Amino acid sequence: MNYPYVIVGGGHAGAAAIEGIRAHDPTGGILLLARENHPPYQRPPLSKQLWFGKSTKDELPIYDPAFYRDQHVDLVLRREAVEIDPEGRRVWDDRGVAYDYGKLLLATGARPRRLAVEGAEAEGVHYYRSLEDYLFFENQLTRFQHALVLGSGFIGMEMAAALRHAGKEVTLLYPEEYPLRRVLPRPLGLFVADYYREHGIETVSGESIVRFEERGELIAHTTGGNEVTTQLALVGVGVEPSTDLAEAAGLEVGNGIEVDEYARTTDPHIYAAGDVAEFPYLALDRRMRIEHWDHAIQHGKAAGANMAGANRPYTTMPFFYSDLFDLGWEAVGEVDGSMDTHPVWKVEHREGVIFYLHDDVIRGALLWNVWDHVDWARQLIREAKPMGAAEREKLVMASVGA
Ligand SMILES: Cc1cc2nc3c(=O)[nH]c(=O)nc-3n(C[C@H](O)[C@H](O)[C@H](O)COP(=O)(O)OP(=O)(O)OC[C@H]3O[C@@H](n4cnc5c(N)ncnc54)[C@H](O)[C@@H]3O)c2cc1C
């Protein structure tokens, strides 16, 4: 079989690439090879809206089934790409079917990092990434009363809130001093830990799991010599990019598949986008790999467009977001809790803007319960102008009303 465009991976990036291609080539055949059992669907609601009754499963699909037909896309589900021959421009799936491509997109995303401790293969230890995982948890809800959530990144935080909202007892355990350590400044992180406790979640900081044991229930042994008895553990200790195919094909791989500003890998016929790709973030003048929804969509679209000849660099400054019970936020740029930060509050820890600075230049902004200001933040980052604290406060006052 021969296709001008083959997309591997049916996540946000792979799905968005179809639109990017179609904006520049209305008819060239597209094959989308997707390992999962479902046509491309929205991932963010799996740990948020679905649990809080704000969305339903029938709202998950990214496109109507008719879209694939109308756009001449052959959607092949439950099929994994297992090998690429870059010279022959051919890719094989796990049933031995070969597809010749003009341009290939690797949108293989990321997978949960596994816990490498004794007993981690126990039946009660789970990871959370896909719709299948959501369906599993939904199905198990009546079978457990207590869950141990490991890790205080986005998945751990959101799923702890989701399971608590579903009426479960939840212990949230993390090695850092406070949750979301990679993103939040310390005082805000400590506030979030308190906020979770107010919602009935037991938080345990500064601890990791060293061993699981099955004794009827699941016993998790911690670094501090404590035991947590639970029925189910949800491990959210980060993800790793699915780069195996690219590595085997001899493409350059660093902290992800290396691509240029056109989303092109070191092979001119192969592109990569989304969670799996390390790309030049032009507005920040550095290379990055981003594991967020908006980036996956915009980067996927850009890659698709360039596969179809657009020849346009990816200049988007993607935003990302999360919801923690009633607290919600959006962020853009370099948002790293270890940077110099300057919070400007309208209501302390409830509503405000946190700037992430390098030599007094705004590199990133976290809009904490502040909405519709992503473009404003983007503009400040693009300007890259050194600014004192008073000037930043005035800016927030003028536009957010702090
Ligand atoms: C539960 C959850 C909630 C999230 N919430 C938010 C949020 O609130 N805000 C936010 O900004 N981001 C959020 N994210 C992150 C966001 O969803 C990801 O950044 C985005 O899904 C990445 O899209 P992607 O297409 O690059 O990769 P993925 O979504 O990982 O998709 C890659 C797909 O490729 C498939 N695949 C891999 N290898 C192969 C192969 N060899 N052959 C065929 N198929 C293959 C995989 O099975 C997968 O379906 C969330 C993620 C999860 C899991």
Task: Summarize the SSE layout with pairings.
Blueprint: E1 2-8, H1 12-22, E2 30-33, H2 65-70, E3 73-76, E4 81-85, E5 90-93, E6 98-106, E7 110-112, E8 125-127, H3 131-140, E9 146-150, H4 154-165, E10 169-173, H5 186-198, E11 202-204, E12 209-215, E13 217-222, E14 227-230, E15 232-235, E16 239-241, H6 244-248, E17 253-254, E18 256-258, E19 270-272, E20 277-281, E21 286-288, H7 293-307, E22 319-324, E23 327-333, E24 340-347, E25 351-358, E26 361-368, H8 374-383, H9 389-399
Helix pairs in contact: 1-7
Bound molecules: flavin-adenine dinucleotide.
Output the keywords.
globular; 23% helix; 402 residues; binds flavin-adenine dinucleotide; seven-stranded mixed sheet; single chain
Q: Cα-atom Rg, whole angstroms?
A: 22 Å
Percentage beta strand: 25-35%
- Please estimate the helix content: 10-25%
Mean pLDDT: 97
What is the rounded distance between the termini? 60 Å
Instruction: Give the distinct bound molecules.
Output: flavin-adenine dinucleotide
General shape: globular
Number of helices: 9
Q: State the total count of DSSP E strands.
A: 26
- Helix/strand/pairing category: alpha/beta
Mind summarizing the main beta sheet?
Answer: 7 strands, mixed
Low-confidence stretches: none
